[in-house]
Write a structure and sequence with these properties.
The structure is a homodimer.
Chain A lengths: L13 H10 L9 E3 L6 E5 L2 E11 L11 H17 L4 E11 L5 H17 L3 E4 L2 E3 L5 E11 L14 E5 L4 H18 L11 H8 L5 H9 L6 E5 L3 H12 L2 E5 L7 H9 L4 H7 L5 E6 L4 H5 L4 E8 L5 E4 L5 E3 L5 H7 L1
Parallel strand pairs in A: 4-5, 4-6, 10-13
Antiparallel strand pairs in A: 1-2, 2-3, 3-7, 4-7, 8-11, 8-12, 9-11, 10-12, 13-14
Chain lengths: 348, 348
Amino acid sequence: MSDKPERTEINTLGEFGLIDHLTNPIKSINKSTLVGIGDDAAAIENGDFVTLISTDMLVEGIHFDLMYSPLKHLGYKAVTTNISDIYAMNGIPKQITFSMALSNKVSVEALEELYEGIRAACKRYNVDLIGGDTTSSLTGLVLSVTAIGQGEKEKIVYRSGAKVGDLICCTGDFGAAYLGLQLLEREKQIYLSNPKIQPNFEGQNYSVGRQLKPEARKDIIEAFQQNKLVPTSMIDVSDGISSELHHICKSSNVGAFLEESGVPIHPDVEMLSIQFNMDPITCALSGGEDYELLFTIDPNDIEKVKYLPDIYISGEIVDASEGIKLHTKGGNIHDLTAQGWTHLKNKD
Amino acid sequence: MSDKPERTEINTLGEFGLIDHLTNPIKSINKSTLVGIGDDAAAIENGDFVTLISTDMLVEGIHFDLMYSPLKHLGYKAVTTNISDIYAMNGIPKQITFSMALSNKVSVEALEELYEGIRAACKRYNVDLIGGDTTSSLTGLVLSVTAIGQGEKEKIVYRSGAKVGDLICCTGDFGAAYLGLQLLEREKQIYLSNPKIQPNFEGQNYSVGRQLKPEARKDIIEAFQQNKLVPTSMIDVSDGISSELHHICKSSNVGAFLEESGVPIHPDVEMLSIQFNMDPITCALSGGEDYELLFTIDPNDIEKVKYLPDIYISGEIVDASEGIKLHTKGGNIHDLTAQGWTHLKNKD
């Protein structure tokens, strides 16, 4: 390869910018390709049904740290985070493929633990492991999971369907997985500086559990089905509510008005954020890895979600010209920036 | 994670042994899962059609060397080798996902080249790039490609359908990609020992091309369609004919009688193997990365392949009790061992 005079560093574009830059000239040829890059999962037409495909790559030292991530949990998390993307399309995950690159330092027993976690997640979510690839790595462990799901064509929910006047809803609570990670990182540093001090996670099971072994919201998708509710748009929250709400607004060409009081936060997050000298709402909006669902509904459907457990009304979709705003509990209105996970992480 | 007393090294099991060991307790739950682990691609039922899924992971330093693999070729090869698995099921590739983990040393311009190769392959094979994941790597480049294809349920060809009396057929020629790699490795070592000596690939375009930019046998699958031929079993040749024939025999519970004279070898391979002091048939049987098709047909279908270009009759399927044998040009009969790619590589 000849050296080229120009050299643009990747970090000048950012992750989303880089993907846009590389994939922008790509147009679909096959008419079965309903949606390609740019949603939680790709959608492929198969008669009245749609096949949904989502894929993630997890790299040791970037996405997980084997010092505090048990391999069983890692296998479980690798599966659940991927099928979360299928649920985010209002689909049902059916199959996964699991590939890994591994160094010689990994023993067969360690891989058995990893696969125990994969199998546990497959069982919990009724998903079949149908393939994969196993290869060598010169350094750390790399995992790649592809989830395959199915949905009825009329019921697939994209990021792009939000309309002015729609209600913004979310599930569960936010910020715990982020703070769980901060806790794990802090205890790791303490341990590294003095291996005689054992990690202290007392009373922090919730946040640590949310980080190490997240679940996907199968129950919510089933509740939608039972209540004949089809959201107008949906996304799963892997990078924090702010970032995901920006994705919905960009895809739907709308704005949003988010109520701070409508963002559910677990009591443990309120307490733990004080320890880390952080604002709980910042952790909730920008933390990431919650794997909850953020979605919009037609206001006429409000009765369908009002009495459903673990669903919260968090705001309203407005005209694009009004921007994306946060209405704080103190009564102030701020621009909601799309601070993702990475940004927050770099700040620490 | 508590340290366990037992520790089994991965290499005691080998790649196929390891996969068997980890995936053996896995049973499918969803009835749409027709075939999971153990064929070129997984097969998922969708009405009268079958969705085929195949995935590969490619690791820098293991599967490719950026010293001699241009990124454009690498992108092209990552796509073609995956869709070759879809053709090996007698299906038509329709979509791919492409994920990568990359270090900061990769520039945006380098990624543009990689994507140029991906796009070229997508165009050549009428495939849509529908998704993927882009993440950081602490070391080298890791690529993961998933190919999605479609086929008519009645025409999907598995590894398991070979019957006693079937004819063994193959396409193209064998051994060139392996020798191309030897050539690239040799010239790399010469260059490393004295950077003033430029690599010499004169007259070796064929073998080097087969290594760096392999094609998948779209033409053969189209010829099957036109001639209404459905092979009884099929596999693509990524690890050498020997290894692939063992896969077919194991899955179909049969034996095989392979004719050395029925294994096509390109004249360049005959010449080049002399340079490397190797037997051309060894390169053909155990070399790998040819991405040709190895398949079996009902003997009544012989007229359908006899006059098709680039298809060769190489042997016959026999009873499992007769084993897997090679009939040499010299008239000897040997056991055909399943020497894969890795084995050969380690020998050098």
